[in-house]
Specification:
Blueprint: E1 12-14, E2 20-22, E3 31-36, H1 43-61, E4 64-69, H2 74-83, E5 90-92, H3 97-102, E6 107-109, E7 123-125, E8 128-132, E9 138-143, H4 153-166
Parallel strand pairs: 3-4, 4-5
Antiparallel strand pairs: 1-2, 3-8, 6-7, 8-9
Length: 178
């Protein structure tokens, strides 16, 4: 499990048209929103990423960069970016499953074709949403076992406004005896 206020695992992936994403050199003023999604086969992911695409500018106004990434290949990732008509959202691809596990993501096995007729990969990561501070420490994290009921980006933007205005620290940092 990742712990708030502690360093996250490193994260380096190729992106569509933006070179290599490397969390250690990201350099955003207030951090990075990292949205791990299941892949092209997931219709719920497409709708979720459309919502993130609408909010990229809101995050940027607050000094936060965004990236969506999955274990999908470049070809499948490009198809997802095209599907959601991405203009601002960066997409990373070829996320190693071992790195997905380092981030605490759940791994699923294929069940064949999905409801939209696209084959699931043999293994793929389930969703996770993280906000990582500029020093690469975890500020916010949400990990899921399936694609349903995800955090809303509008709420995350609102929470970010509150955190900035009140210098609100990352919570959930206690690791001692209970």
């Amino acid at each position: 499990m990742l712990i708030p206020r502690q360093k996250t695992p490193n994260l380096t992936v190729p992106t569509l048209g933006n070179g290599t994403f490397d969390l250690t050199t990201e350099g955003s003023e207030r951090g990075t929103v990292i949205c791990f999604y299941r892949g092209l086969h997931c219709p719920i992911c497409a709708n979720y990423l459309k919502e993130l695409e609408k909010r990229v500018a809101d995050f940027a106004e607050r000094g936060v960069s965004c990236i969506a990434l999955s274990t999908d290949s470049e070809e499948r990732t490009r198809a997802m970016a095209d599907k959601i008509e991405a203009k601002s959202l960066r997409f990373g691809y070829d996320l190693p499953l071992s790195v997905a596990k380092d981030w605490g993501l759940y791994i699923s096995t294929s069940r064949g074709k999905t409801s939209i007729g696209i084959e699931e990969p043999a293994l793929f990561a389930e969703p996770g949403l993280f906000m990582v501070s500029p020093d690469q420490s975890l500020y916010y994290g949400s990990v899921q076992t399936m694609p349903f009921v995800r955090p809303h980006f509008s709420e995350l933007v609102g929470a970010l406004d509150f955190a900035i205005a009140n210098d609100y620290p990352a919570r959930g940092e206690y690791t001692g005896e209970v």
